[in-house]
Amino acid sequence: MEKEEIDLLVAENQIKIDFDSLVQEPEEESTLLTNPLIKATNFDWIKDEVLFVVVKAYHSFVKDLPNVELCGKKLLDWVLNAGSGCETKVIEDCEDIIGRIRNINTNKKIIAVFYSDTPLLDRATFNKFCNYFSSRNINFLQLSRGFIVKTEFIKNNLTIAQGASELDDKNLLVANSSKVLNLMSSSLYSRIANYHIKNGVILFGQNTIFIDGDVEIESGVIIYPNNIIKGQTIIGEGAILECGNVIKNSIISNGAVLKSSYIENSKISQGKTVEPFSKIIGQEL
How distant, in Å, are the alpha carbons of 25, 46, 207, 278 from that of 53? Predict the structure, then answer.
């Protein structure tokens, strides 16, 4: 099969994991967002009433921070994923961010503003912030990184001052240094691994297995240490990845076995065994 045909099989953005499943365990959640404060379980209203705005944030320690990739996604895309389902808007940072938000034309009742340098923000945390804001019927909620405001309030008040945060959360950690960026990478890889484990994937040597955020793995797959799975890859049910494979943007069909091989833009057929040290690029086997 020609490479162009393989590309059609694994198209960009074809795989969307529901990252609600990547929420941290309860004992690790913010002490400021405790269960007594979060009573609502239905967040459907958020997608209808909230405009989700992401501000592109830059820091001098790395070039073009919003487009730096962690676990196969740009920092900007990780934050946008937290607001998936909402109407979204991306803007550049500026000195007068309140004024910039005030001038956005929207019919949404609420505007939630976050920054692209908080890639650990997930949908569950975003929903909790929105619920806290709504349940208290307040006009402006200052977060440690970002804020939530009623659209009518920000349009009609010219002197809104940002102050100390009313709510904080570890998922609003700011990527403002190489050390923090490395910690974020480890945290995201751990979340992704836990997501797949919950779905019935077996990971032997989890800390040596690196799976990108858009990889889809079916139940019953066994993955041994030192595997790297990148891009929009699909691993079919019952496949076995022995030690030392690198897989990029490929389809590994049900029951296939890979042994210490490099697979890119390719499809491995059902039940096929790929022998050690194979290099397969743009092929169907």
Answer: 27, 13, 34, 45
The DSSP call for residue 122 is -
Q: Which neighbouring-strand residues pair with 112? A: 52, 148
Check if the beta carbon of residue 60 is closer than 8 Å to that of residue 69.
no
Contact 283, 268 (CB under 8 A): no
Cβ atoms of 86 and 47 within 8 Å: the answer is: yes
| Phi, psi (degrees; rounded to nearest 5) at 61 | -75, -15
- Give pTM, 2 decimals: 0.85
Quote the DSSP letter at residue 171: G
- Amino acid at residue number 230: K
> Collapsing DSSP states into helix, strand and coil, what is residue 197?
helix
Mean pLDDT of the chain: 88
- The model's pLDDT over 223-238, given as tens digits with 9 standing for 90+, comes to 999 999 999 999 999 9
CA proximity to 230, closest of 216, 248, 246 = 248
**Are residues 16 and 74 in contact, defined by beta-carbon separation less than 8 angstroms?**
no
